[in-house]
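Supplementary Text 2. Reproducibility record for the structural model of the 393-residue chain.

All settings were left at their defaults, and a single model was retained for analysis rather than an ensemble. We include the record here because the model underlies the residue-level annotations in Supplementary Table 4.
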Amino acid sequence: MDEFHKIKRLPTYVFEQVNKLKAQARAKGADIIDLGMGNPDLPTPQHIVDKLIETVQNPKTHRYSASRGIPGLRKAQANYYERRFDVKLDPETEIVATLGSKEGFANMAQAITSPGDVILVPNPTYPIHAFGFIISGGVLRSIPAKPDAEFFHAVERAVRHSIPKPLAIVLNYPSNPTAYVADLDFYRDVVAFAKKHDIFILSDLAYSEIYFDGNRPPSILEVPGAKEIAVEFTSLSKTYSMPGWRMGFAVGNERLISALRRVKSYLDYGAFTPIQVAAAAALNGPDDCILEARLTYQTRRDVMVEAFSNAGWEIPSPAATMFAWAPLPERYKHLGSLEFSKLLIEKADVAVAPGVGFGEYGDDYVRLAVVENEQRIRQAARNIRRFLASDQK
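Retained model, structure tokens:
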């Protein structure tokens, strides 16, 4: 039987192969140290949990909620942007609450994409940045993930050689999986370029609060006039260790936000009201829990970089995110990232995310997530050191 058209357009989800191998190993009793999925292991701060419990006691909150987010939540997000980025947003017209940034991105793609529309997407990048538009019938042109001069050469070429002209450009800084960071000067140049060519910007800022060494990532909306063409997606998943709560936002350009709000009104009734109330409490609450999580990830990053280096695998130290983007050890590069990832599960009891899952230009890398404690990270390094040593014999 033939596959459905949209399913045929989707590439193989390589992470399924790693997850299957990981499950099989665990079923046989292996203690797999999972550095693959970016699934925060830190508990949600207690004051947020308490607000959820308090709110859920009221039966009125069990009814249908608001698809675009309850007013108090949208106001809390507006206050966060003003406090953190000095960006003013209208909660009525420039903010939509989403079921995590992933859902927001996918539904924005559905809202604005016609079949054949060209979208400029980083490669490698977080899969929904590409798949959302593929599912919507768009055509992708790959651009570099690194925010440097080559980025602008590439987008210039893409605009010159694309028919029709690109509809939108996707940005993601701090980047998943590469951990690249962008500064405000880069954003200024991108905004100027996009305005010149009448292209929308979709910016994923999910890792705005997971940064190290004092280098606070900016918002593209800090650039004067950016709201004329840009929408930004954020998430509470990493900032407040709330991945399973599925709470995020799209903010910015009124026309794009209106389109997303319209599509969502047909598809969902929004998150469960107590979750939205608790999310507002998170945004309005103290920042000490954010700092504590950031310091935890920074400590784990430092342990991973040092321990893996001592094990014989040099890993660049990321400036932000909960990930390290690690080049394959030289003698394994011929395998590619998927086969190397399988080998690590089989021989070292360590799971990582193959770089090819984020795009073909990621195949010389794997992504490591600091979602295990320091002891487990050191154990992973010991396992890898034994594997590398035995494989040399």
